[in-house]
Amino acid sequence: MKAFAIDGYKSKDGLVARELFVPEPGDKDVLVEIHAASVNPLDAKLAEGAFKAFLPYKMPLILGHDLAGVVVRVGAGARRFAVGDEVYGRVADGRIGTFAEFIAVNEDDLAPKPKTLTMTEAAAVPLVALTAWQALVERAGLKCGQKVLIQAGSGGVGTIAIQLAKHLGAVVATTTGTANVDLVKGLGADIIVDYRKDDFAKILRDCDVVFDTQGGKTLDKSVNVLKPGGQIIGIAGPPDPRFAEQAGLAWPLKLVFRLLSGGIRRKAKRHGGSYGFLFMRASGDQLRQITALVDAGSIRPVIDRVFPFAATREALDYVATGRAKGKVVVAVK
User: Fold this and answer.
1) What is residue 18's predicted lDDT score, i.e. its pLDDT?
2) Is Oxidoreductase given among the entry's keywords (predicted)?
3) Which of 8, 83, 87, 160 has the most CB atoms around its CB within 10 Å?
4) Domain span at 139
């Protein structure tokens, strides 16, 4: 099969096309013929070695976390799917590789593809929707009437998070650039801060939840908009002790993450709130709940560009620029 892989972190050759064997599905796996795969900033960061301390991979490494496709083989112990089923999902860490024509996936990481979406549209959903779900539903417990700030509302995660927060009945504030104001308004944002003109930290107040996708100075300023008891959930900021514990990391890494996140955790605490880091995980069960929202019309993917499979490297380079609105998808089949 054809696949796109890296031969090493920060490789000078970058993502290259390779001919590899079609993987054999394990007992609880299904073999999926991939029709479309989306590209995430996570793929670019992984290629640079950003997560090698706690996500060790062997080379060559096929990149890609999201897929939509058709089941072509079923492992002996797999029961959820049959040959011919249309599925989609975010592959679990340690088993990524959706920039390929086939992949073996644990059946628990997949869900039936939404009936209202094409393969291309479906591939744009899993990672960003699961990230938004795990931040706003699972971690924050966002409730009707609460106020949430979603940073970078026009990004892949932001476009889904706005829609999910509105479905939950929250008052949604978001930041975006001038060119994307109409986009985020159309997705349901109630309060829009154009970061090219205004400072969100001087405009917003009393947020129950801040969903930070930016890190750095944006994360530091986010504490200023929290109400007492509010929480910041970050996916770009420093990992915290809770994450290190859940990931089962060795004590040196636990200490490093405690130190790295100490500043923002103390700052949030001084403002009467809290900070927590989220590294999303694969979950077919959560994705089934998201599928229901998609088919009900509550959530729709926003797609910036679709690249042919042969241009997967160019798609990754485009995502790495940070200019994409919504998601970038590779049409594999």
Assistant:
1) 95
2) yes
3) 160
4) 127-277
Same domain, 50 and 175: no
Separation of alpha carbons 320 and 195, rounded Å: 20
Higher pLDDT: 138 or 57? It is 138
Of 118-132, 243-257, 296-310, give the lowest mean pLDDT range: 243-257
Mean residue pLDDT of the chain comes to 95
Answer yes or no: are the C-beta atoms of 16 and 99 closer than 8 Å. no
Residues 17 and 33 reside in one and the same domain: yes
| 95-129 per-residue burial string, b: 16 or more CB within 10 A, e: under 16 | bbbbbbbbbbbbbbbbbbbbeebebbbbbbbbbbb
pLDDT tens-digit profile of 172-210? Answer: 999 999 999 999 999 999 999 999 999 999 999 999 999
Query: What string of DSSP letters covers 150-196?
Result: ESSTTBHHHHHHHHHHHHTT-EEEEEE-GGGHHHHHHHT-SEEEETT
- In terms of Cα–Cα distance, which of 280, 289, 281, 333 is closest to 111? 289
**Distance, CA of 253 to chain centre:** 23
Distance in angstroms (rounded) separating the CA atoms of residues 100 and 198: 43
